[in-house]
Amino acid sequence: MSDITIIDYGVGNIASIANMLKKAGHRAVLSGDHDEIRSARKLILPGVGSFDHAAARLHATGIDDLVRERAAAGVPILGVCLGMQLLLDGSDEGELSGLGLIPGRSTRFPPEVDGARLRVPHMGWNTVRRTSGTALPHVVTGDRFYFVHSYRVQPDDDAHVAATTRHGVEFASMIHRENVVGVQFHPEKSHRYGLRLLSDFAEEA
């Protein structure tokens, strides 16, 4: 049984996540093999690009059903960036369904806020505000992470929001439901804050 498997379904720069975990002293396997994913103690679902492309890749490889299966079995799962958005039911960016592990959808940032044009995508460093202490507890208010995204997740239940960030509007930057966690930012690009987050995920019981 591998410790952590980073799911390789052809979407995202997964090697950078593995390198950050290695720096934190944790071994991760990069794999799209069903047996490898099924035997992993923990899973990371990465993703960059468009929602429908990523959702189609998950479906074409059969990894979507496998991730749902492992989530139902209680395996800790971390969705990163687009991988976080895939945890929800769907996105206004496309027409395909997400994994449905956390009820909600992703919506595009508004073009303007209070009469001022909002820069989209939201790109660069920003801070998080902690709203719940049940997921990745060492991520605290004031921690800074690197973001690149044009869509924001909106869980149906506010209880599933673990942290928020402001970019024109307040949006969920970390979500959770039982053993499933998602982060909108890139921990692999977030230096010591990302290193601490990935260590937190790797070391949780």
Describe what this molecule looks like in 3D.
With 205 residues, the chain is α/β, with parallel strands linked by helices. 26% of the residues lie in helices and 32% in strands. It has helices spanning 14-23, 34-39, 51-61, 63-72, 82-85, 191-203; strands spanning 4-7, 28-31, 42-45, 77-80, 90-91, 104-108, 112-113, 116-117, 122-127, 129-130, 144-149, 151-155, 161-167, 169-177, 180-183. β7 and β8 form a beta hairpin. The longest helix has 13 residues, at 191-203.
List the helices and strands and how they pair.
Elements: E1 4-7, H1 14-23, E2 28-31, H2 34-39, E3 42-45, H3 51-61, H4 63-72, E4 77-80, H5 82-85, E5 90-91, E6 104-108, E7 112-113, E8 116-117, E9 122-127, E10 129-130, E11 144-149, E12 151-155, E13 161-167, E14 169-177, E15 180-183, H6 191-203
Parallel strand pairs: 1-2, 1-3, 3-4, 4-15, 5-6
Antiparallel strand pairs: 6-12, 7-8, 9-11, 10-13, 13-14, 14-15
